[in-house]
Design brief:
The protein is α/β, with parallel strands linked by helices. The protein has a domain of 166 residues: Rossmann fold (3-Layer(aba) Sandwich). 34% of the residues lie in helices and 27% in strands. The protein contains nine helices and ten strands. The strands form two sheets. Strands 6-7-8-3-9-10 form a six-stranded mixed β-sheet, sandwiched between helices. α6 links the parallel β7 and β8. The longest helix is centred in the middle third of the chain and has 15 residues. The radius of gyration is 18 Å and the shape is globular. The chain binds adenosine-5'-triphosphate. Adenosine-5'-triphosphate binds next to β2 and α1.
Length: 238
Amino acid sequence: MQLVLDQIAKTFDNKKVLQGAGFTFEKGKIYGLLGRNGAGKTTLFNCLSGETKMDGGKALIEENGTTRELREQDVGYVYSLPILPEFLTGYEFVKFFMDINREKLEPNKTPDDYFDLMSIAEEDRHRLIKGYSHGMKNKIQMLLFLMTKPPVILLDEPLTSFDVIVALEMKNLLRSMKQDHILIFSTHILQLATDLCDELVVLNNGQLSPVPSDLLRSPEFEASVIELLKDESHAEDA
Ligand SMILES: Nc1ncnc2c1ncn2[C@@H]1O[C@H](COP(=O)(O)OP(=O)(O)OP(=O)(O)O)[C@@H](O)[C@H]1O
């Protein structure tokens, strides 16, 4: 399976954020999306998830020799600031989500099976989501996609909110998920990108380009990425 982005364009007011962005992502790999503040990473994710309408271009899924448009239900989107019903407990929410997605789930799984998979402690399962830390909320979001297994999973700056232990658990989880999904995550942390990703993609001047794979683990990697990002003419000074 491949996700093919072709000439994706998005302008806000007079600001051209995506200018013909194209790239092919493959199942079985973790992709890191790098770009400066304001480069358009979230905008690209929003366009792919259907949250923002793109002005031009296409996102296609190619599988078993057939091509079709990417649909909203193909995409699992882990937001940097998770949006969850704060008035429910984690358990209530997961149970509700399981009830409405019953046909997509593996039979005989219980909410606790999923909490176990995410290493969410027993005592936390029955607390209100309102009181969860940022990292816990991200975990709950990830848990939803473990259940429904959308083919494309987008993670917007996901691991930055995790402590070292949880970050390691999440890295292992992402690695274990990659054979069945196209995983793309945006990050500003180069170390994380090199550590976790099979490929890096740079969003620069509204376009996507690969970081050559021989650079990924070379000593010149950081300097090369900084060079690639330096000429971002419309990035915001952060
Ligand atoms: N709904 C909107 N209306 C107007 N401008 C927007 C909107 N959404 C994003 N922008 C602008 O588009 C540009 C790209 O923003 P975006 O959030 O996609 O960048 P980013 O690469 O995710 O940045 P960061 O790394 O800081 O999160 C910014 O200049 C932003 O102000």
